[in-house]
Every structure is written in C-alpha cells, then in structure tokens.
C-alpha cells in the first residue's frame, strides 16, 4: 500500500466529522429553543400578573362605587380616580374646622361602608384637607394660614371617623392648604369647589422591624 493510501486510511471518515458538526449545531439549537421558551414563559407570566393587577384595581373601584352608591346618588360626595371628595360647605362653615351637623351625619353614614372596603382590600384611608386661595381673614384667632386650616379640617374628619368606629390604624390626616385646586380659583363657585376634604384609599403601611438595642445586655 502506498504512503498516500496509508494517510487516507488513518484519517477519520468524512461522515464522522459531519456527524460531530451536526451534533454541535443541534445542541446550539436546543439551547436557543430552551432560552426562547423560557423567555416566552416569563413574558407570559409578567403579562398575566399585570392583567391581574389591572383587574383587581378595576374591581376595587367597582366595590368602592357600590359602597358609596347612596351618597353618590344624593350628590353629597364625588368619586374621581378613587378619591372621595366632600365639599367643604357640607362639612364646615367658612374659615371653620368645626363639623356641621350635615357633615357629621354624612361621615357617620360613610364610616361603615368605608371600613368594610378598607378591611376587605387591605387598605387604609388618607384624609386630605384643601382650601381656596383666599388668605385667612385678619384677626382670626384659630388659624394663621390656609395650611393650618386645611390640617385642622383633615384632623377633624379623621377624629370624627374614629369616633364613629373607624379603627385608628386605618386612617390618617394630610394637609395641602391652597395647593392642588381642582379648578382655577377665579370666582366664588370655583373657590367653593376647591374648599374640600378628600378621602383616598392607600396601601397599608408595613410594620417596621423592631430595632435591636446597641447596648450590651446586662449580665
């Protein structure tokens, strides 16, 4: 046998090399397929979670509207983007933070449905006070400015809800003064709309972990 024939006999057959190449390509293809399937599954789960969040938000809004159906129909409250608005004229007289009888009755009727809604959805209630842009009249012995007036009105509503049976951990007060009007303050009617109290369901605050003392323990 010639030297060339010996070399050819020692080299692996071409089909074996081709088989190894195809095996490698198949392995790469399988890896890409597994990655693509995993990515598609992750994307599908993410879309499903977002859909569930939207559906839960819509259901919560529908539940809130149902709970407030009577006062909404009577025009005593408004519901905008989940915020419950009550006209300041219903709750308080001008430049006052003392609840009027009509406002007290309204809060008494709202407390039950609100508490049920908050409890069922794991939420708490932020009570926000707002005023118009007119400065507090000089000589007012109770409030120095609109910030103080809005804060006291929010506190008054918060305390009234608690007095009617709302758990204290489910409600808190916030003040905005003349900031964030719903309409421009151009006349008496618009200013009347801006003098309001809003109640907004918000997520419950998570309890903080106890802080361990840095002092050494007693022996």
Number of domains: 2
Task: Note the gap between the termini.
Answer: 95 Å
**Uncertain residue segments:** 208-219
Q: Do you know the CATH architecture of the largest domain?
A: 2-Layer Sandwich
Beta-strand share of residues: 5-15%
Structure in words:
By secondary structure, this protein is α+β, with helices and mostly antiparallel strands. It has two domains: 12-67; 75-203, 2-Layer Sandwich (60s Ribosomal Protein L30, Chain: A), CATH 3.30.1330.60. Helix content is 53%, strand content 13%. The protein contains seven helices and five strands, in the order αααββααβαβαβ. It has helices at 3-10, 14-67, 69-73, 88-91, 101-121, 146-163, 188-194, and strands at 78-80, 83-87, 123-130, 171-175, 196-203. A five-stranded mixed β-sheet has the order 1-2-5-3-4. Strand 3 (123-130), helix 6 and strand 4 form a beta-alpha-beta unit. Helix 2 runs antiparallel to helix 5 (101-121). The protein starts with a helix and ends in a 16-residue tail after the last strand.
């Amino acid at each position: 046998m010639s030297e060339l024939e010996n070399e050819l006999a020692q080299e692996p057959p071409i089909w074996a090399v081709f088989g190894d190449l195809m095996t490698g390509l198949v392995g790469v293809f399988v890896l890409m397929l597994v990655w693509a399937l995993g990515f598609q599954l992750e994307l599908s789960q993410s879309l499903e979670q977002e859909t569930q969040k939207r559906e839960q938000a819509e259901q919560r809004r529908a539940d809130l509207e149902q709970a407030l159906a009577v006062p909404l129909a009577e025009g005593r409250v408004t519901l905008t983007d989940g915020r419950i608005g009550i006209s300041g004229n219903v709750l308080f007289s001008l430049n006052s933070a003392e609840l009027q009888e009509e406002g007290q009755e309204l809060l008494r009727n709202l407390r039950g449905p609100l508490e049920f809604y908050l409890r069922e959805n794991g939420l708490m209630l932020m009570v926000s006070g707002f005023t118009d842009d007119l400065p507090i009249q000089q000589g007012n012995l109770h409030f120095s400015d609109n910030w103080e007036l809005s804060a006291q009105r929010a506190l008054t509503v918060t305390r009234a809800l608690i007095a009617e049976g709302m758990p204290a951990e489910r409600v808190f007060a916030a003040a905005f003064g003349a900031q964030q009007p719903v309409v421009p303050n151009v006349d008496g009617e618009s200013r009347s709309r801006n003098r309001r109290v809003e109640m907004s369901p918000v997520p419950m605050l998570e309890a903080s972990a106890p802080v361990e003392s840095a002092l050494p323990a007693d022996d």
